[in-house]
Amino acid sequence: MLKFTINSGPDSLVDRCLEVAGITLDPSSFKELPVPLKELLLFKLTKMGLCSGVGLENLVHPSLLNLDLHSCYIPEKSLLLIEGLKQLESLNLPQPPCVASKEYSEATLVKVVKGKPNLLLLSMVGLVGVTDRVISVLVGGSPKLNCT
Fold first, then answer.
1. Which of 15, 40, 49, 129 is 20 to 30 A from residue 5's alpha carbon, by CA?
2. 66-68 and 121-123 strand pairing
3. Is residue 96 a part of any domain in this protein?
4. What is the pLDDT of residue 67?
5. 3-class SS at 121?
6. Cα(71)–Cα(119) distance, rounded to whole angstroms?
7. What is the number of other CB atoms lying within 10 angstroms of the CB of residue 61?
């Protein structure tokens, strides 16, 4: 029997396939993928800055633990998908210039950070919408968050 190993290191088969397939990749087809493959694809696409709102919509799932969007362009409407990810332990939000006008609204950021009891790491570098209210909701709902 022939076995294939998916290496997550640089220049892996997955990276090469994504580079080639990126031209015709249809994010709506991601919805039917099994969770482990969704996680691998989400990791690769976000690492390459290729995850958009549609890709995020079809790849996130309730048991997701880590999400790094720092170099992805995610519209504010799509950022609200993170609201339902209650198991997140690590979240890196998009950083300017990936964020249009460097700003997500306070209301959106409150919804994104609210109710994340397992959150250990959060990055909101350069975002203008981070207010005292956002920080208050975050601190109140994320007891495991390391504030150093």
1. 49
2. unpaired
3. yes
4. 93
5. strand
6. 20
7. 15
